[in-house]
Amino acid sequence: MKIQSLISERRIKRKVKELAEEISWDCRNKDLLLLGILKGSFVFLADLMRTLEIPAECDFLKVRSYAGDKSSGKIRIDFLPSLKKRDVLLVEDIIDTGLTINSIKEEIKKQKPRSLKLCSLLNKPARRKQKVKIDYLGFEVPDKFVVGYGLDYEEKFRNLPYVGIYPVK
Ligand code: 5GP
Asked: Exposed, middle or buried: residue 5 (CB in 10 Å: 0-12, 13-18, 19+)?
């Protein structure tokens, strides 16, 4: 199946560089931990981390919130590393209703990190149910189901180098 491109590989590369420069400057005096939310963020996080101009560590959270293309609104964090006194930058693939990221943030705050910020590759504001503060954002997308650059449809298409629209019926 051919997936129609929405955001090209070139645009993604340019945006990752811009975000990395901004984060590198803002976090120049911090003990930065990139905390990726699996699985969707792993491609974005890998590119972002390699483009940063400052030292950084990474870790990952496994969260269950989706079956097929529908949000359940409920999440379960399978693994949460110790974040006490860390400068945490959450790295997400897409913010849709906002339920997942807000629940994750609440869990993380309990661990008392020194600072907590959010970087998301994509934002789909049309379906927002809760307000979300995105500190670093790549692109806004329309109310479509998107895949590629880490994002899947039933585990497929994560390897596409661009973001495209999956034709959900
Ligand atoms: P939220 O709780 O904000 O509704 O859901 C966020 C999660 O839902 C994302 O991390 C992602 O895993 C999934 N998601 C939301 N919209 C899309 C989409 O258009 N495509 C894909 N592949 N996943 C999505």
From this structure: middle
| Residue-range domains of the chain with CATH | 4-67+89-162 (3.40.50.2020)
Give, to the nearest 10 degrees, the angle between helix 42-51 and helix 9-26. Answer: 60
Q: How far is the CA of 7 from the centre of ligand 1 (A)?
A: 17
The answer to whether 31 is a known catalytic residue is no
| Measured distance CA(169)–CA(167) in Å, rounded | 6
Say if strands 163-166 and 145-147 run parallel, antiparallel, or are unpaired.
Answer: antiparallel
pLDDT in tens, 108-154: 999 999 999 999 999 999 999 999 999 999 999 999 999 999 999 99
When pLDDT is cut at 50, 70 and 90, the band that residue 72 belongs to is low
Q: Tokens for 103, please give them.
A: 């629940």
Q: For residue 62, how many other CB atoms are within 10 A of its CB?
A: 13
80, HSE (Cβ side, Cα atoms, 13 Å): 17
Using a 10 angstrom Cβ sphere, with 0-12 exposed, 13-18 middle and 19 or more buried, the burial of residue 46 is middle
Q: Which member of 31, 78, 87, 96 is catalytic?
A: 96
What is the residue with the minimal CA distance to atom 4 of ligand 1? 97
d(CA 84, CA 78): 18
